[in-house]
Amino acid sequence: MLKVVPIVIAIALCFSNLGFIELGGRVKDVPAPHNHLTQDKNAQAATISELYDFDDATNAPAQSIPEEIIPNEQNILRLFWDIVPNAVKYEILIDGASIFSYTNGIELPVDDVHKKFQVNAVSLEGTTLENKIPIRDIETNPNAPRTTTEFDKMNYPPIYPVYSWIPTNGADHYEIELIKDGKIIRRYFTQTQPQEDNFDLYDKVAVVDEGEYFWRVRALNSDNQPLTHWSEKDSSNSFEVKHQIRFCALGDSITHGGGAISAPPSTVLYNWETYCAIPVKNLGRSGDTTAEILERFDNDVLPFRPEVLFIMAGVNDYRADILGSESVENLELLRDKCERNGIKPVFLTPTPINPAQIQKLNFIDLPPEDWQEHRKFICDWICDQRYFIDVNEKLIDDEGNLMESLSIDGLHPDAEGKKIIGEAVAAWLDKYLNLK
To answer: Whole-angstrom Cα distance, residue 237 to residue 221?
Structure first.
């Protein structure tokens, strides 16, 4: 049985949603997704500070011996496909019904695992973006969750990992463990919530120490009994942390990644670092203000001793009614910290937002009416620095807002917007390296 450690209940910090329509054709209302990328600043992630080996942490005799799990009385068909750009949800057509998923995979209870099905990519408004998506993998009656992180596609692991998986049919909540060099160093439990809402967890504790890491997840019932075995270790959920990284990026969710409301930073499509030809380590943390970024500088930046630090910050300030002058004071202190430590600070202008889109979707609070004034104050200061990149020429519309076509939620640039940012950083680095 699972040994429960009561001090380590962690709330799943980002929300997402699956909408279900019952098999047999009776249609239910499909709820709109929560904005998966918006952080709840009141949610606290707890962690075990002590080291445990597998036996101590799980009460299992050995990792190779499966723990007894509660059997599933239904046949389960698990489908997995690639993320489609700008798709917020996916429609699965099976047995005369439509089922909607907000992840790029789903577990379906079926009476026949050989049933025919079709998966379509769908926009937030319900427009079909792509019909008959190719299925990468089909599993019947899986005994462990399928992880969806793409650490193997990243040049460096992010300092704040996001752990994501395909929801397990019938799960009440999940247990997540981070393992370093064979020792479990952190254990999290997601909050009990509807099964379809529970498919990722943002780690709020920086992964800084050098070493070999991987993470794993298993599904639990309401009595904390395992419904599945642990997910398997593979290259996509494993990563190595090294110090002495030449180029790093510090910032908020625009740097951290994720997009189209439902795709987390654990996938590469919506990360601007993906589109930079020169490797850059991601030190972003979703939801941060300039003050919070400044506060974590010593812990999160100095261990890696970068030669160049790209800094993009401010959007969470001006949308939360923090004065532009206050944001600039924090950015000045960040610049001074960089210079004292032999780091070249390169400031990126903070991206604009689109209040009309934000209001239409009602995912986050509207910014104050004078947000553009404070954003301009920050941008003017940045463009007066020795090293800066103005990323907004291709992001901004005639009204000074983020182009609606580049952001579904009005706050986070999606794939094309992240490509614009990544290519702008790559162009700066190309000049910098050629001048050296």
So the answer is: 24
pLDDT confidence tier of residue 37, bands split at 50, 70 and 90: confident
* Contact present, 366 and 359 (Cβ < 8 Å): yes
- The pLDDT tens digits of the residues spanning 173-227 come to 999 999 999 899 999 998 876 555 568 899 999 999 999 999 999 999 999 999 9
| Total residues belonging to the chain | 436
What's the token pair of residue 2? 């699972």
Instruction: Pick the closest to residue 163 from 137, 126, 202, 189 (CA basis).
Output: 202
Amino acid at 396: I
Where in 42-172 does DSSP place strands (E)? 75-81, 89-94, 97-101, 105-110, 117-122, 128-130, 135-140, 162-164
Strand order in the sheet with 105-110: 105-110, 75-81, 135-140
Mean pLDDT, rounded, of the chain: 86
* Residue 119 per-residue DSSP state: E
Provide the residue ranges of all domains of the chain, joining segments of one domain with +: 6-238, 243-435
How confident is the model over 381-403, as pLDDT tens digits? Answer: 999 999 999 999 999 999 999 99
395: DSSP letter: T
8 Å CB contact between 187 and 8: yes
* CA–CA distance, 274 with 266 (Å, rounded to integer): 12
Q: Which two tokens stand for residue 145?
A: 């969750």
Residue pair 127/98 in contact (Cβ under 8 Å)? The answer is no
Distances (CA, A) of 305 to 161, 226, 267, 281: 20, 42, 26, 12
pLDDT in tens, 246-296: 999 999 999 999 999 999 999 999 999 999 999 999 999 999 999 999 999
**Side-chain half-sphere of 149: how many Cα atoms within 13 Å?**
27
pLDDT number for residue 7: 30
Task: In whole angstroms, give the CA distance from residue 396 to residue 45.
Answer: 35
Predicted TM-score (pTM) of this structure: 0.87
The whole-number average pLDDT for the span 46-64 is 37
| 17 CA to centre of own chain | 14
Return the structure tokens found at 289: 């203000």
Best CATH choice for the domain 243-435 from the list 3.30.1490.190, 3.10.450.50, 3.40.50.1110, 3.40.50.170? 3.40.50.1110
